[in-house]
Amino acid sequence: MGTPMPSPELIDFSKLPIYLPDVECSSRERIRAIQLAKLIEQVNYTYKHVPWYQQKMDAAGVNPSDIKTLEDVRKLPFTDKSALRETFPFGLFAVPLDEIVEMHASSGTTGKPIVVGYTRSDMDVWSECIARLAQMAGVTAKDRVQMAFGYGMFTGGFGLHYGIERIGGMMIPAGSGNTERHIQMIADYGTTVLIATPSYAMRICEVGEEMGFDWAASTLQIGLFGGEPCPPGLKAELEARMHITCTDNYGLTEVMGPGVSGECLAHRDQQHIAEDHFLWEVVDPDTGEQLGEGEEGELVLTPLDKRGIPVLRYRTHDLTRVTTEPCECGRTLARMEKVRKRCDDMLIIRGTNVFPSQVEDVLSGIDGLTPHYHIIVDNEQGLDRMTVEVEIKPEAFKDSFEAMNDFSREVTDKLRTALLVTPVVKLMEPGGIQRTQGKAKHVDDRRRYE
Ligand code: DLL
């Protein structure tokens, strides 16, 4: 069963189990050799099975046979969300749909989501990656693991679920929402591990405190959190108030979902990348040029054995730096610094990705609104809250409170349907949203947890 967190200098790392020591503790040379063999095969596979990539590579004048070293990955074109948007829903799939056993989706920058599909072998790799990161965090087959992610199109719920099953832990598939019930279930079932976004974990913590739940005496020991940044201040508070070890894992739908990297107990501000399944690069977000080890830039990922929907050099827009220095936990897999910032305007609200462009699209389709809007995000009550201020055209302005209320509800419903997040909508009178001289600043992110 997961152990409460002793201070790092007291941990005997040699006693902590490692899921795949042969890979996770391999020499750097061997890791690179595995990556190269897989990269060559993956590029060939992708070129052969995805016409979109064949065209892109032909246009860039690069052939799979040009990939002879890991450095040659630079010859390949980048991929970003627009590729998935252009080919929605299945245009990047490399296998007939009959071979897809599960699909997931996440927000795109506009109306259509990003759709991904997994073959049976993709599911095996996925659950292995999750099993590895859960074990890195101290989870074992004896743990009772309560899921507070939704079991929907979001990759977090099912992804983490399969990985915990793989190490033999007991899954408690509670799903998202109903915070009081979560606390009751922890008490009733003796839950030892909680899976959630860190912000929702904080909400669970606070509601528990309000209910008089004694976190210090509870069975809960480990938080497997992810899906959004977990700043050190938030992590420290979760650990102190819930009396747990709060770990953080990272991933994104386009390359797998959760499972790309996870925190070990030796370096609590970093995450080991599953390098045998992902080739990482850090690039200058403006020029796309590769940066050296330790330099901060945009993480670019090439999954090395993805069969359903392979992607090459995926631009994550997440900013980080990577080190390949050996780690005290025994793993030799590279470590990425926790992602705190993105280099695009995507917001993560309660674990759901939201682009200002989606908000703009919805608002522009509603009669009676001017093009001016303002998004405010805060987390004063523990949970992220998104407020959207919209401005009414003079002709749509009504004296009746009822009529204005109905209008506000219509805007809220349309935003909720598109974003999967329920915003607080504030109707502003004509001219009520401040105009700027230069670029309009649409987003004010006031969340604080430094
Ligand atoms: O959030 C996958 C995931 C689910 C990871 C559950 C971990 C746990 P998306 O919805 O596609 O996938 O969002 C991916 O979320 O590019 C980051 O910007 C952000 N993100 C995910 N995990 C972390 C994390 C899932 N641990 C986007 N720290 C990514 C910081 C994170 N940001």
Give an overview of the whole structure.
With 450 residues, the protein is α/β, with parallel strands linked by helices. It has two domains: 8-343, ANL, N-terminal domain (Rossmann fold), CATH 3.40.50.12780; 349-445, 2-Layer Sandwich (GMP Synthetase, Chain A, domain 3). 30% of the residues lie in helices and 25% in strands. The chain has eleven helices and 21 strands. The chain has helices at 21-24, 28-49, 51-59, 81-86, 120-136, 155-167, 179-189, 198-211, 232-242, 356-364, 401-419; strands spanning 100-106, 114-119, 144-147, 170-172, 193-196, 222-226, 245-252, 257-262, 270-273, 278-283, 297-303, 314-320, 322-323, 335-337, 341-342, 347-349, 352-354, 369-381, 383-392, 424-428, 443-445. The strands form five sheets. A nine-stranded mixed sheet has the order 4-3-5-6-7-8-9-14-13, sandwiched between helices. A four-stranded antiparallel sheet has the order 10-11-12-15, covered by helices on one side. Helix 8 packs parallel to helix 9 (232-242). The longest helix has 22 residues, at 28-49. It is globular and about 70 Å long. The mean pLDDT is 93. Bound molecules: 5'-O-[hydroxy(phenylacetyl)phosphoryl]adenosine. Residues 106, 155-156, 226-229, 248-253, 257-258, 316, 318, 338-339, 342, 348, 353 line the site of 5'-O-[hydroxy(phenylacetyl)phosphoryl]adenosine. 5'-O-[hydroxy(phenylacetyl)phosphoryl]adenosine (DLL) binds at residues 106, 155-156, 226-229, 248-253, 257-258, 316, 318, 338-339, 342, 348, 353.
